[in-house]
Amino acid sequence: MPELSYDAYREDVVGRANVSDTPELIDYYRRLSRLGTGALWTVANKIEPWQPRSSSVPMIWRFQDLRQDVLRALDLVTPEQAGRRVVYLENKGRSDVVAAVGWLYAGLQVMKPGECASSHRHSASALRFIMEGSGAFTNVDGHKMTLGANDFVLTPNGTWHEHGVAEDGTVCIWQDGLDIPLMNALDANFYEVHPELQQAVAHPVDDSLAMWAGSGLRPAGQHWAKRYSPLLKYEWAPTYEALSRYARVSDGSPFDGLIMDYVNPATGGPVMPTIGATMQMLRPGERTKAHRQTGSFVYQCAKGRGWSVINGQRFDWRERDIFVVPSWMYHEHANASATEDACLFSFHDLPVMHALGLYREEALGENGGHQPVLS
């Protein structure tokens, strides 16, 4: 059996741990281990890297490859059996925590017309982005919302929520996004099923949208003290229209094209304390420059086609494909069409990074801001 090395992480740099193994030190380390302890200098360079070193890897999940297997779940399990009929996305570097990237979970949920999953709540914050079908709905603490393709809906942590499809609807598929891995890492995750399995609709349908979706307007006299957005549904048509108007007066970001944050209309902040979301537009033929950020991103193509280069790897995407950008990896995007715009929805953990004072961003300063494609 090979001898355990305790000096695998040493670095010959002033200010870094640089202690080589000796028989006396190895005996010392073994005694510390028996006491449930260890010498910091044997692991300091590992646990305090020079810069973020994500175990996540860039990946893409193409909808055309997944769709039939997602639909097959309709015949294999019921919502009552499964709780939620979902095919989750597993990052090769994060399979131990069932994450799509970093501390973010993603999956594709499917439901038939007339189905409604049991109402539940949990510590994890959640969102839905509708991919296909008609008649989908979500009920959050008694606020029922009807949903269409590319609509974005919140189910914030601690809220009772359920999802379903109307009897006169069609089979629906949507992307789920949650911070389950983060809640589990913090040992803070709770899950409850509603005692009556379904909750009543306690407000007019789509009341959240009627009250809070006015552009530049806020309902007078309405007090909102909760930490998540009172606007629980963000519709695709006004979102796309806002980006189109923005495109007429701005060049946008050199790194993201025309990009807009989904915001809490009561505060102007992120939609939820731990998860933020954006929609961005790439003009015909547009290619952005590369930058990197502390934070993990899950992207879904909402419109058009193009490609992204992530840490030197090129990933071609089209509508409904999902790809991820791990923390502190250079990324850039391009629209493959010379005549049509392309739109990317994303959700991310930047609210956590900002709240903890950890956010950092860096542009690629060479090769005109573009990465060489390595593979």
Describe this protein's structure.
By secondary structure, the protein is α+β, with helices and mostly antiparallel strands. Helix content is 17%, strand content 28%. It has a 6-stranded antiparallel β-sheet.
By DSSP (H or I, 4+ residues per run), the number of helices equals 8
- Rounded mean pLDDT is 95
- Tally of DSSP β-strands: 22
Question: Helices and strands: which structural class?
Answer: alpha+beta
List keywords for this structure.
375 residues; alpha+beta; 6-stranded antiparallel beta sheet; 8 helices
Q: Would you kindly provide a brief summary of this structure?
A:
It is built from 8 helices and 22 strands. It is α+β, with helices and mostly antiparallel strands.
